[in-house]
Write a structure and sequence with these properties.
Organism: Micromonospora lupini str. Lupac 08
Keywords: Membrane, Transmembrane, Transmembrane helix
Number of helices: 2
Oligomer: single chain
Radius of gyration: 24 Å
Distance between the termini: 41 Å
Protein name: DUF3311 domain-containing protein
InterPro entries: DUF3311 (IPR021741)
Largest sheet: none
Length: about 80
């Protein structure tokens, strides 16, 4: 009985290129916290916390919201 022929190597699937304009929104949570004018001051205070501290939480919420929005707008519907 002859030896079985080895299977042809399969190539890895190519990555889908998503050129959606929605992806540009992902720069928002990166660039906005880098603007120094947002941190240049002490007021307003929320629950006694200066602006710098509560803005850190706001940037996290901005990042989560933006990422969720971009994901929802760019995910593939139906099909595969």
């Amino acid at each position: 009985m002859p030896a079985p022929e080895p299977e042809a190597p399969t190539t890895a699937p190519t990555r889908a290129k998503d050129h959606s304009p929605w992806n540009w929104l992902l720069f928002l949570p990166i660039v906005v916290p880098l603007i120094p004018a947002f941190f240049n001051g002490d007021a307003p205070r929320i629950f006694g916390f200066p602006r710098y501290y509560w803005l850190q939480l706001a940037w996290i919420l901005l990042g989560v919201t933006t990422t969720t929005l971009v994901y929802q707008m760019t995910k593939k519907r139906g099909g595969r």
